[in-house]
Design a protein that fits this description.
With 343 residues, this protein is mainly alpha-helical. The chain has 2 domains: 223 residues, Rossmann fold (3-Layer(aba) Sandwich); 86 residues, Tyrosyl-Transfer RNA Synthetase (Orthogonal Bundle), CATH 1.10.240. Helices cover 55% and strands 7% of the residues. It has 15 helices and 5 strands. Strands 1-2-3 form a 3-stranded parallel beta sheet. The two termini are 37 Å apart. The chain binds adenosine-5'-triphosphate and magnesium ion. The site of adenosine-5'-triphosphate (ATP) has 19 residues, from α1.
């Protein structure tokens, strides 16, 4: 039976949030637990440098935190290869080779670049100065991440769609230039909820201070949920609410309680007939989130007390990933006619 290669990654820029869980990790678990797939999951630390090169003090700690987040939700090192990007130098070599034939206007027109620039500095001029060669090359590095493992399916959130299109363009260009069909054209794989909102109604993001972490405590979660933007037209508690205008809590009920039609019907009725105010409604939502994530949080605490076990998991994954990466690069050098002379 042929297995399909799965590849995806996350940046060690902070603990993971519910957007990661419902936007990507549920699909990772699906691929890991269904037969016929060979998943590679990477903690992409070089990517963290593209926006925070001047301060690396938190990268190592964040690698550990991400590993804990993955393991506590059920990512299984027996079924998936879990590794750290910078332990695989072949990815950097492929990035360099790709950069030689990637036209510069491909990276310049990349739509996500604007968001990245905004993240760097509120002042547009100051931000522009922080756009490094490495940041511009983000999609080339991501194409290398995927294609080093000849990834065919890439489970990611909606914000990554244009990067996947970019990776397909790079694969196609390589195949065309070197008259081969070596690289697959990687396809994105989205969950039913590919773009989760943060408490402010914008994309939930690690770097936007609008997220609820997988590892948050019950009270952290309650505090955050209280900040959620609701129905802006509902002024007084006695005004009937509108679930269709409720910006964040109602969409989140539909995620957390998606299989509970009776709960959703009750929440809708209580809102629309003004039986409950937004504050109480959000307190209830926080309770549902905490109930859903409690088992993960408990498992995470146990794992955190044994860093050695996590280190061993990553070392094992790094070795396994490196073997595949070496094979790919040796084949790529052969195809490109770049085997070293005279050896
Ligand atoms: P940062 O703010 O540092 O970029 P992030 O929260 O965007 O962090 P990434 O590490 O860039 O996280 O993304 C990891 C994966 O999680 C990607 O597949 C991305 O699409 C997905 N993801 C992140 N945030 C969301 C979200 N709000 N909804 C759906 N998917 C998301
Ligand atoms: Mg991101």
């Amino acid at each position: 039976m042929t297995t399909k290669r799965i590849m995806s990654g996350m940046r060690p820029t902070g603990r993971l949030h519910l957007g990661h869980y419902f936007g990507a990790l549920t699909n990772w678990l699906h691929f890991q637990n269904s037969g016929g797939f060979d998943p590679y999951f990477s903690i992409v630390d070089w990517h963290a440098l593209t926006t925070k090169y001047q301060d690396t003090s938190e990268v190592k700690g964040n690698i550990f935190e991400i590993a804990l987040d993955w393991l506590c939700v059920g990512i299984d090192p027996e079924k998936a290869t879990i590794y750290v990007q910078s332990a695989i130098p072949e990815i950097a070599e492929l990035h360099l080779l790709f950069s030689m034939f990637t036209p510069h206007n491909w990276v310049e027109r990349e739509p996500t670049l604007k968001d990245m620039v905004r993240m760097l500095d509120n002042d547009e001029h100051a931000a522009q100065e922080k756009v490094t060669y490495g940041l511009l090359g983000y999609p080339v590095l991501m194409a290398s991440d995927i294609l080093t493992f000849r990834g065919e399916l890439v489970p990611v959130g909606k914000d990554q769609e244009s990067h996947l299109e970019f990776a397909r363009d790079v694969a196609r260009r390589f195949n065309h230039l070197f008259k081969t069909d070596y690289f697959p054209e990687p396809q994105p794989k989205f969950t039913e909820t590919p773009l989760l909102k943060g408490v402010d109604g914008l994309k939930m993001g690690k770097s936007f201070n609008n997220d609820i972490k997988i590892a948050d405590t019950d009270s952290d979660t309650a505090k955050r949920v209280k900040q959620m933007i609701t129905d802006r037209t509902r002024i007084a508690k006695s005004d009937p609410g509108h679930t269709d205008l409720c910006e964040v809590p109602w969409p989140w009920y539909n995620i957390i309680d998606r299989d509970k039609a009776d709960v959703l019907a009750l929440v809708k009725d209580e809102c629309e007939s003004a039986k409950i105010g937004c504050v109480d409604c959000k307190t209830r939502l926080a309770g549902h989130i905490n109930d859903a994530f409690r088992p993960f949080r408990e498992k995470r605490e146990k794992l955190a007390s044994d860093p050695d076990q996590v280190r061993k998991i990553l070392e094992h994954g790094n070795a396994k990933a490196r073997k595949v990466a070496k094979e790919t690069l040796s084949e790529v050098r052969e195809i490109m006619g770049m085997t070293t002379w005279p050896t």
